[in-house]
């Protein structure tokens, strides 16, 4: 299951609230509440029709003036019965935020703020239309919308959202393979260290080789860990530069650390008598400094507060 970042969703809602409210109001005003209330068996058809145009629709039902549900909850095709944890017909909704908001609102249409749905246990919005039924009593038509799917719909991300799990699988395989490679390097470093301790052959040279293997293992492990965290475990907003900024900074930091350690190892090795590595060590250290300066410039230029 794709991990959800509720803080990200709420932030996006705050950013697009006027557009979201207008969109949901336009959807609910296209319905004929009296016809729906008098023909509850047609609720499923109404929801299916809405879902084809608006894939973020979840539930549709009616309430009476006291907040009691007068119809079954018609669910969109994407909402399985097992996800609806509450009964439908006859349920008391008088303590729900959308009922109290619609009851106290002088306007016919009420759009709520995001809340955690007791039916699906996900962030949702509700649009409520107040109307007078055939008997002259006030009733309410309620439509529940999934906030995550709504944000994806507004961003034009529906297709990418459907394919995203496949990308996560590929990134997961790559990340796990990198972690396994780092494990093999650490195993080789352990074997090399064992030879240094018990055989005492070329202790200085072998010790540096062991450190190099450990450093490479650390760098590759950090790379695999970064891929798993950024692409698999965390939610990324591809429409915001902060997400790419965080990923690039983490990758570049891992590379700078690895290059710096390798340059120091070559420098220490040259001090032990093999001076042929000194130039390479200096160039690698200068490359690490250049990478660090470049990263600093990039972070400065992409700082939202700048």
Can you tag this structure with a few keywords?
306 residues, alpha+beta, 6-stranded antiparallel β-sheet, 61% helix
Could you outline the blueprint of secondary structure elements for this entry?
Layout: H1 6-29, H2 33-38, H3 43-53, E1 57-63, E2 74-75, H4 97-104, E3 109-111, E4 115-116, E5 123-132, E6 138-146, H5 147-155, H6 158-199, H7 203-233, H8 241-271, H9 278-301
Antiparallel strand pairs: 1-2, 1-6, 3-5, 4-5, 5-6
Helix pairs in contact: 1-5, 6-7, 7-8, 8-9
Describe this structure in words.
With 306 residues, this protein is an alpha+beta fold. Helices cover 61% and strands 11% of the residues. It is built from nine helices and six strands, in the order αααββαββββααααα. It has helices at 6-29, 33-38, 43-53, 97-104, 147-155, 158-199, 203-233, 241-271, 278-301; strands at 57-63, 74-75, 109-111, 115-116, 123-132, 138-146. Strands 1, 2, 3, 4, 5 and 6 form a six-stranded antiparallel sheet that branches. Helix 6 packs antiparallel against helix 7, helix 7 packs antiparallel against helix 8 (241-271) and helix 8 runs antiparallel to helix 9. It is elongated and about 100 Å long. The mean pLDDT is 81.
Q: Main beta sheet: strand number and arrangement?
A: 6 strands, antiparallel
Q: Count the E strands.
A: 6
> Nearest-angstrom radius of gyration?
30 Å
Structural class: alpha+beta
Tell me the span between the first and last alpha carbons: 37 Å
Quaternary structure annotation = single chain
Q: Low-confidence parts, pLDDT < 50 over ≥5 residues?
A: none
N to C succession of SSEs = HHHEEHEEEEHHHHH
| Overall pLDDT confidence | 81
- 3D shape: elongated
**Helical residue percent?**
55-70%
DSSP strand content: 5-15%
Give the count of helical stretches. 9
């Amino acid at each position: 299951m794709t991990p959800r970042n509720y803080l990200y969703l709420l932030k996006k809602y705050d950013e697009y609230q006027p557009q979201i409210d207008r969109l949901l109001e336009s959807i609910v005003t296209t319905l004929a509440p009296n016809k729906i209330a008098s023909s509850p068996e047609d609720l499923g058809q109404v929801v299916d029709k809405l879902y084809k145009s608006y894939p973020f629709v979840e539930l549709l039902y009616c309430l009476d003036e006291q907040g009691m549900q007068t119809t079954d909850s018609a669910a969109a095709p994407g909402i399985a019965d097992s996800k609806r944890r509450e009964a439908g017909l006859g349920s008391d909704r008088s303590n729900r935020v959308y009922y109290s908001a619609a009851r106290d609102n002088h306007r016919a249409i009420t759009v709520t703020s995001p809340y955690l749905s007791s039916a699906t246990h996900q962030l949702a919005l509700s649009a409520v239309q107040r109307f007078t039924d055939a008997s002259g009593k006030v009733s309410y038509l309620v439509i529940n919308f999934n906030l995550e799917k709504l944000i994806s719909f507004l961003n034009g991300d529906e297709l990418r959202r459907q394919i995203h799990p496949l990308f996560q699988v590929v990134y997961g395989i790559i990340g796990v393979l990198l972690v396994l490679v780092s494990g093999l390097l650490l195993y080789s470093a352990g074997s090399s260290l064992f030879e240094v301790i018990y055989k005492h052959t070329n202790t200085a040279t072998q010790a540096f080789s062991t450190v190099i293997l450990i450093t490479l293992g650390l760098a590759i492990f950090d790379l695999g860990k970064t891929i798993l965290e950024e692409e698999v475990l965390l939610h990324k907003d591809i429409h915001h530069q902060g997400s790419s900024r965080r990923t690039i900074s983490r990758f570049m930091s891992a590379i700078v650390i690895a290059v710096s350690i390798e340059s120091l190892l070559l420098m220490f090795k040259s001090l032990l008598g093999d001076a042929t590595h000194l130039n390479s060590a200096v160039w690698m250290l200068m490359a690490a400094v250049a990478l660090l300066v470049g990263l600093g410039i990039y972070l400065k230029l992409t700082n939202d507060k700048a």
